[in-house]
Amino acid sequence: MQLQQLRYFVAVADTRHFTHAAELIGVTQPSLSKQIHALEADLGAELFTRTRGAVALTPAGEALLPLARRIVADADTARVEVQELVGLRAGRLRLGSTPSLSVSLLAPVLRRYADAYPRVRLHIEESGSQDLVRHLVAGQLDLAVIVLPERGTDPSLRTEPILRESLVCASSLSMPPPTEQPQLRITELRDQPMVMFRHGYDLRDATVAACERAGFTPTYAVEGGEMDAVLAFVEAGLGVALVPSMAVAGRTRLRITPLARPAVYRTVALAHRRDVTPTHAARALRDTLLAYLTEAAAWSTLPPGVDPL
């Protein structure tokens, strides 16, 4: 089994077409087909079913695909790291982040990083923490800023908590406040219509868990959105939402109400695979992020309820 064969296999699996895969890689179609046949012979199983006008993965192909993606991704990372060490070209960083953290935390950090390392190629992937964890494990990301789940994250990842952030209740200024008190008790959300994040979003899990601990199931006015959509729906008066402190900084059309004890927090962490040493570019991003948080805490520029760890 050769790395080149795995690259060809992944290309065919992605395009579901031998000719298109050959064009994508830059080889002739006969050469690609020959290497796929050699790979199948080596493995002792067909990887694709080939019918007129269609290519599909066999069960063996389905089993190989995630492993092949990871091997190819690791090889690419190794090549970039070695080339970076010997000075052949600048580095590359594939960074994952949740949408809310991209806007509230990473934007100023990446500005500093780009100034210090202008030749590093940055690729940012925004998604929910659960999706980012899967992409880290598959070798598709070098580093990710994720929210740690209460049940613990994948054991193949190494996580480094960097800050703890309290959730607050966001409501529209055009609607009656959810409480007359300076702080809101979770039980007061029992009869409030809520704007809920999509499934797989860490904030959805945190909100539902907080409500269930308080003895009720939340009522949804609308659900399924990402951060920007949720905040817009709240501003429009469709309902209230529990959101991170940093995500609502500067949102003048929202009423922000802190939560009474026991408050609801989320822990933000840096994550990477245990079995892969982070690249120089990834380590430089970590150092830049931690320095930013240290300075922001010293100058009290972080929003209330945000505490570096």
What can be said about this structure in brief?
The chain is α/β, with parallel strands linked by helices and 309 residues long. It contains nine helices and twelve strands.
Protein architecture, described:
42% of the residues lie in helices and 24% in strands. With 309 residues, the chain is of the alpha/beta class. Strands 3, 4, 5, 6, 9, 10, 11 and 12 form an eight-stranded mixed β-sheet that branches.
List the helices and strands and how they pair.
Elements: H1 3-15, H2 18-25, H3 29-43, E1 48-51, E2 54-57, H4 59-85, E3 92-97, H5 99-116, E4 121-126, H6 129-137, E5 143-147, E6 157-172, E7 193-197, H7 202-213, E8 219-225, H8 227-235, E9 241-244, E10 254-258, E11 265-273, H9 280-298, E12 306-308
Parallel strand pairs: 3-4, 3-5, 7-8
Antiparallel strand pairs: 1-2, 5-11, 6-9, 6-10, 6-11, 6-12
Helix pairs in contact: 1-2, 1-3, 1-4, 2-3, 5-9
* Tally of helical runs: 9
Tally of separate domains: 3
Oligomerization state of this entry? single chain
How many β-strand runs? 12
Task: Tag the structure with descriptive keywords.
309 residues; alpha/beta; Arc Repressor Mutant, subunit A; D-Maltodextrin-Binding Protein, domain 2; 3 domains; eight-stranded mixed β-sheet; two-stranded antiparallel sheet; 42% helix
